[in-house]
Automatic annotation (TrEMBL):
Gene Ontology molecular function terms on file: voltage-gated sodium channel activity
Coiled-coil spans in chain: 237-264
Organism: Herbidospora solisilvae
A Pfam short name: Ion_trans
Keywords: Coiled coil, Membrane, Transmembrane, Transmembrane helix
Claim: Transmembrane is one of the keywords in the record: yes
Domain of life: Bacteria
Protein name: Ion transporter
């Protein structure tokens, strides 16, 4: 019976934490705390309302710590099975470390609390999860892109090393220049310098830009979009999740009624 009462308490705390109003309040507090931490970088604001900013920061940290403890109490072992819970726990623990002495650098890391917005907003969680899911596919594209840049750098060093030694004298110089061209940073100037001596060089630069920038970029976008589509829950999955939440609430209510009946029966027997 004691176990059931304790289980009912855990369930009540869980339902409280999962209320939309509570989750929205946490999101608002994260945003407000991020704004106050940014305001603390202003000497003028610190001189005028520094005490208020520090007070809000301490209150927000206390709320975050209490919320983590409540989630540990409500979910118990299940808390550690969710990577997002680990993410929140690490951020709060880092924020609790005294920002003085050898750990004074951690004071600058307080803004990491704003990252809790990612775990608090479901849509942001889905985006991050989709990006992590797309990492294997992006790794293959990155490998292909590096191979193309390396091949182009070797060709550019052989063709343009003598006429543009500052940019293509050696392989490292060519790699850096081609990376600059890939980002679109003043690539026209580089091309004109080479084309003054070799007018046909535009063929190399245009081909390289088309392959390295447009093709690779579109491949990156395709992989990420595909991963996000896979991570987006379908209407049937959302309906099943809502039904699961309702079922959990009904089970918790039944447990509470059963505990109440058992308590009344025990009192009558006495």
């Amino acid at each position: 019976m004691i176990f059931r009462v304790e289980l009912a308490r855990h369930e009540r705390v869980r339902r409280f934490l999962e209320r939309p109003a509570v989750q929205r309040a946490v999101v608002v507090l994260i945003v407000v705390n991020a704004i106050t931490i940014g305001c603390e970088t202003s000497a003028t604001l610190m001189a005028q309302v520094g005490w208020l900013l520090v007070t809000i920061d301490h209150i927000a940290l206390a709320v975050f710590a209490v919320e983590i403890l409540a989630r540990l109490y409500a979910y118990r072992r299940d808390f550690f099975t969710d990577p997002w819970n680990w993410f929140d726990l690490i951020i709060v623990v880092v924020a609790l470390v005294p920002a003085s002495g050898p750990t004074s650098v951690l004071r600058a890391l307080r803004i990491l609390r704003a990252l809790r917005l990612v775990s608090a907003v479901p849509s942001m969680r889905r985006v991050v999860s989709a990006l992590l899911t797309a990492v294997p596919g992006m790794a293959s594209i990155i490998g292909l892109l590096l191979l193309m840049i390396y091949i182009a750098a070797v060709i550019a060093t052989k063709l343009f090393g003598e006429i543009a030694p500052v940019r293509f004298d050696e392989l490292p110089d060519s790699l850096f220049t081609l990376f600059q061209i890939m980002t679109g940073d003043d690539w026209g100037t580089v091309a004109k310098e080479v084309m003054e001596h070799k007018p046909w060089a535009w063929v190399f630069f245009i081909s390289y830009i088309l392959i390295s920038t447009f093709v690779a970029l579109n491949l990156f976008i395709a992989v990420v979009v595909n991963a996000m589509n896979d991570a987006e829950p379908s209407p049937s999955e959302e309906l099943a999740q809502a039904e699961l939440v309702e079922l959990r609430e009904e089970v918790a209510a039944l447990h509470a009624k059963l505990d109440l009946l058992l308590e009344r029966g025990t009192v009558r027997r006495r």
